[in-house]
Design goal:
four-stranded antiparallel β-sheet; about 10% helix
Length: about 110
């Protein structure tokens, strides 16, 4: 991950993302969620939950079962993939979708 200065696009910070000491790559569609950085792993059904201070993955979310088997087959046939995260802070939920997905899904966040 790179923090980039908006004026001039100078890189001001680099943060390797890792799990178990190994690099996690293909991060896509980043979203800030309750103090964590969430990122789709491009062309997979996985969302990584990342500690923004250390870059360590603290958990995984699999969104693959949200589609029916028929929907999943059609999305894959057309080249679609999970690729959309939005945090609805006011309602304590995360909205997820994907390229060519037929619907948007709401995932409730645990209450603290």
């Amino acid at each position: 991950l790179y923090a980039v200065q908006p004026d001039g696009f100078r890189i001001v910070r680099q943060l390797p993302v890792t799990e178990g000491g190994r690099p996690v790559t293909h991060l896509n569609e980043l979203e800030w969620v309750d103090g964590e950085l969430w990122a789709n792993i491009y062309q997979t059904d996985w969302i990584a939950r990342i500690d923004p201070a250390s870059g360590r993955v603290v958990g995984w979310i699999n969104v693959g079962a949200l589609l029916t088997p028929a929907e999943r087959t059609e999305v894959q046939r057309r080249g679609g993939t999970a690729n959309g995260i939005a945090h609805d802070r006011a309602n304590r939920r995360v909205l997820v979708t994907g390229k060519l997905w037929p619907r948007l899904f709401a995932i409730a966040l645990p209450t603290t």
